Each structure stands twice: as structure tokens, then as C-alpha cells.
């Protein structure tokens, strides 16, 4: 089976009511990155950081996957689909996608500040300052903050190298190393960029679908399933 690799970002969850980061009215207009999404912010004010992610978790509890997420599930009928997502929500999984790699962590998990391999599922939306691992070390959100290493980037780069087709959807491609993944995709492989705004990918063999994820991905998936695309 041919492999379709998808790099998704906040825009695919926008139609589920989840705020993006850099659109007008996005999260980074309301919060300072250094306050809520860095290790320094966490050391300075844990309460503020926990509140920020508690709100994101609350918002996620009320959200449902949208047409864009479901289109990627439909694509699994015909292709081996691998989703590399920058999103920390679980909407790809809830829609039914089976191979999802969370590059920037997962909102519904927490991890130990002592042992990065101690990762637990959170029961509800709230993380409190008192939560610890069995050894008494503080738990932190299981999120890759700015300035931190991205542990899954190598796996994501390998997947990108092996793609027979690549879809970028709902990301401003502003944050590295995720934004650099498209450069691992072989030049002759067909690529789609689905986004209502201009997101120049600066790679060969790319088609821009300037639409929201729901309608844009429907076009791409229809085309891929009916095999109108000549796969190299
Ligand atoms: N459908 C598709 N794309 C959309 C939609 C929609 N309905 N609405 C907005 N977009 C697009 C925007 O045009 C923009 O290009 O989604 C993109 C969102 O970009 P960002 O807010 O920068 O989100 P993202 O690229 O996922 O951010 C990357 O930055 O803050 C960090 O860790 C955070 O994972 C995040 C990373």
C-alpha cells in the first residue's frame, strides 16, 4: 500500500472550535509564549501554566472531530496514512485515524519532571500543583515547550522521507523543526498544502488548495481515492 503522510497543525482543529495560535485572535495574541509555553515560564509561575493548559483541556472536552479529521480517516480505505500532528488535542484519534504521531505532546497526558518516560493519562480536565509521580516529583503537562527538544522529530523525518504523497494542512509552518519536515520529502513526490491562507512551502511538486480543512481535504482525498493522481 502506498504511504500518504500528513503534517497537520492547529488549523485542522479550527472547525472544531479550537483556537489556533497565530491567526488574528489566536492564542499567542492573548498569552505570552514565554509565560505559558516555556520551561522558564513553568519555573516562574506554575499556577499560570497549569491554568493555561487546564483551559485548553476544558475546551477540548467540548470539542468534536470535524469533517477534515474524518476525511483523513476515509483516506485509510486506500492508503497507509501516517499523521504527524503538531496538535496536542486528540481529535485525529477520536475521528478514527490509526497512526498518529504527536510531535508536540498530548494535552490529556502529564509526565514526571524527574523521569521523562513516566507519562500518565489525566482523568479529567484539571491538573493541580499538588500532582506528583510515585516518588514525589512534580508532574508537568506532557507538552513540548519552546526551547525544548522534540523527541519524535527523527521518527517524523523518517516517515516524511518514505512518503509517496505528502499533505500539509492547517499549519503556518512557522515553528521548527516541524516546519522543516517537508524538506525530507523526496522532490518528485506530490505534495498538497491545504490552508485558507498563503503558506509558501518552497518545495517542488506542490499544489496549494486555498480552503479550510473540511472542504480542502475532501478535494484532496477524493482525488487520491479515485486515483486521479499519478503516483510516482
Ligand atoms: N482549515 C485549515 N487551516 C486553517 C483553518 C481551517 N479552518 N483556519 C486557520 N487555518 C490555518 C491558518 O491559516 C494558519 O496557517 O491554520 C494555520 C494555523 O497556524 P498556527 O496558529 O501557527 O498553528 P501551528 O502551525 O499548528 O503552530 C505550530 O506552534 O505555538 C506552537 O506548539 C504550538 O504546535 C503549535 C506550533
Short description:
This protein has 232 residues and is α/β, with parallel strands linked by helices.
Task: Give an account of the 3D structure.
It is a single chain. With 232 residues, this protein is an alpha/beta fold. The chain folds into two domains: 1-17 and 65-104 and 150-232, 3-Layer(aba) Sandwich (Rossmann fold); 19-62 and 108-143, SIR2/SIRT2 'Small Domain'. Helix content is 28%, strand content 19%. It is built from eight helices and nine strands. It has helices at residues 27-30, 33-36, 39-44, 46-61, 67-74, 91-95, 153-161, 213-225, and strands at 3-8, 80-85, 100-102, 105-112, 119-121, 139-143, 165-169, 191-194, 206-209. The strands form two sheets. It has a six-stranded parallel beta sheet, with helices on both faces. The radius of gyration is 18 Å and the shape is globular. The two termini are 13 Å apart. Bound molecules: adenosine-5-diphosphoribose.
How many distinct domains? 2
Indicate the CATH class of the largest domain. Alpha Beta
Question: Which structural class do the helices and strands define?
Answer: alpha/beta
Q: Terminal Cα separation, in Å?
A: 13 Å
Bound molecules: adenosine-5-diphosphoribose
Spans of at least 5 consecutive residues whose pLDDT stays below 50 are: none
The count of helical stretches stands at: 8
Note the beta-strand portion. 15-25%
Order of helices and strands: EHHHHHEHEEEEHEEEH
The profile of the biggest β sheet is: 6 strands, parallel
CATH topology of the largest domain: Rossmann fold
CATH superfamily of the largest domain: TPP-binding domain
Percent range of helical residues: 25-40%
- As laid out across the biggest beta sheet, the strand order is 3-2-1-7-8-9
- Overall geometry: globular
CATH architecture of the largest domain: 3-Layer(aba) Sandwich
Q: How big is the Rg?
A: 18 Å
Average pLDDT level: 96
Amino acid at each position: 500500500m502506498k504511504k500518504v503522510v500528513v503534517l497537520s497543525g492547529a488549523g485542522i482543529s479550527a472547525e472544531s472550535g479550537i483556537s489556533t495560535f497565530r491567526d488574528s485572535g489566536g492564542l499567542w495574541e492573548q498569552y505570552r509564549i514565554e509565560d505559558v509555553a516555556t520551561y522558564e515560564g513553568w519555573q516562574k509561575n506554575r499556577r499560570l501554566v497549569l491554568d493555561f493548559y487546564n483551559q485548553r483541556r476544558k475546551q477540548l472536552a467540548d470539542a468534536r472531530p470535524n469533517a477534515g479529521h474524518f476525511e483523513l480517516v476515509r483516506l485509510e480505505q486506500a492508503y497507509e496514512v501516517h499523521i504527524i500532528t503538531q496538535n496536542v488535542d486528540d481529535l485525529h484519534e477520536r475521528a478514527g485515524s490509526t497512526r498518529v504521531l504527536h510531535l508536540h505532546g498530548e494535552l490529556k497526558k502529564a509526565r514526571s519532571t524527574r523521569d521523562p518516560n513516566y507519562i500518565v493519562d489525566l482523568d479529567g480536565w484539571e491538573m493541580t500543583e499538588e500532582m506528583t509521580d510515585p516518588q514525589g516529583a512534580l508532574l508537568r503537562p506532557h507538552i513540548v515547550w519552546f526551547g525544548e527538544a522534540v523527541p519524535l522529530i527523527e521518527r517524523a523525518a523518517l516517515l516524511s522521507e518514505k512518503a509517496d504523497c505528502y499533505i500539509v494542512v492547517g499549519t503556518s509552518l512557522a515553528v521548527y523543526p516541524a516546519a522543516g519536515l517537508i524538506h525530507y520529502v523526496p522532490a518528485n513526490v506530490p505534495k498538497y498544502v491545504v490552508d485558507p491562507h498563503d503558506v509558501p512551502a518552497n518545495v517542488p511538486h506542490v499544489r496549494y488548495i486555498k480552503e479550510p480543512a473540511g472542504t480542502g481535504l475532501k478535494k484532496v482525498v477524493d482525488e487520491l481515492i479515485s486515483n486521479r493522481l499519478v503516483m510516482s
